[in-house]
Design goal:
mainly alpha; about 0% strand
Length: about 130
């Protein structure tokens, strides 16, 4: 894999997304999210079946539970998006052929000094 700006950016997005997922989203919010979803679904089914009052009450309580879980859901979605786009950046960044990797380049003639040659000659004279 070639290391360039895209792969580094992708890696940082993945690391940040995983930290948001595990740091910001605890798994304790999954239970109210599931219960709220089931209650909202049951309320809609009751409302459609003609039981208007119980459908509104059950659906309303479920919606309130879902709204309270909304920051958790948004955080998880944001973390998943960061991991996905980070991975995509890393994969696309490593496919670039125009970017050189971190292979050492040979020194050009302008930067080569003849100090070693002169030092060897100096030592031979002594």
């Amino acid at each position: 894999m070639k290391i360039n700006k895209k792969t580094i950016g992708g890696f940082l997005l993945i690391v940040f997304g995983i930290s948001v997922f595990f740091g910001g989203g605890s798994f304790g919010f999954i239970i109210p999210l599931a219960i709220g979803s089931l209650m909202t679904y049951a309320g809609i089914k009751r409302f459609a079946a003609g039981k208007t009052i119980t459908g509104i009450i059950v659906g309303g309580i479920g919606a309130i539970m879902l709204i309270c879980s909304l920051p958790f859901v948004v955080g998880i979605a944001l973390a998943a998006a960061m991991v996905y786009y980070g991975w995509k950046l890393m994969k696309n960044g490593s496919a670039d052929n125009g970017v050189s990797s971190f292979d050492p380049e040979p020194a050009s003639a302008a930067y080569q000094s003849h100090f070693d040659d002169e030092w060897e000659e100096f030592l031979k004279k002594k």
